[in-house]
Write a structure and sequence with these properties.
globular, STAS_dom_sf, 121 residues, 4 helices
Length: 121
């Protein structure tokens, strides 16, 4: 399930994902990112994962390809999670982003949001 957080505004997209991520979830996320990228030079992303156990492989691959194509249009990106595989995923896709991805544990989500919104921790 994809939840749009209230911090979403201007060139910032803040989302929380829970449970299973489906292809429609990824499609909605990509459409939101694409719309922001059309309007702004850089799009900053806060991506929080809570109780996420599974991602549909096809959706994850499609999302990865989107990131590669649009990597230079991303600004500050923070991924917040609670599992080691989430940190590895952040490190894996970090090189395709203009400023990379900073990974934070769920306990540090306030620091992550501050980084995305203000550029500092």
């Amino acid at each position: 399930m994809l939840e749009i957080l209230p911090e979403t505004r201007d060139n910032v997209l803040a989302v929380r994902v829970r449970d299973k991520l489906t292809i429609p979830d990824f499609d909605q996320y990509r459409n939101l990112v694409r719309d922001l990228m059309r309007k702004h030079k850089e799009t900053h992303i806060y991506y929080e994962m809570v109780d996420v156990d599974w991602t549909q492989p096809v959706a994850a691959i499609e999302n990865g390809l989107f990131d590669i194509i649009h990597g230079l249009d991303y600004g500050r990106v923070a991924m917040v999670g609670e599992k080691k595989w989430q940190e590895w995923a952040a490190k894996l896709i970090s090189p395709v982003k203009k400023h990379g991805i900073r990974y934070y544990d769920l306990a540090d989500k306030d620091k992550a949001m501050k980084y995305v919104l203000q550029g500092e921790e």
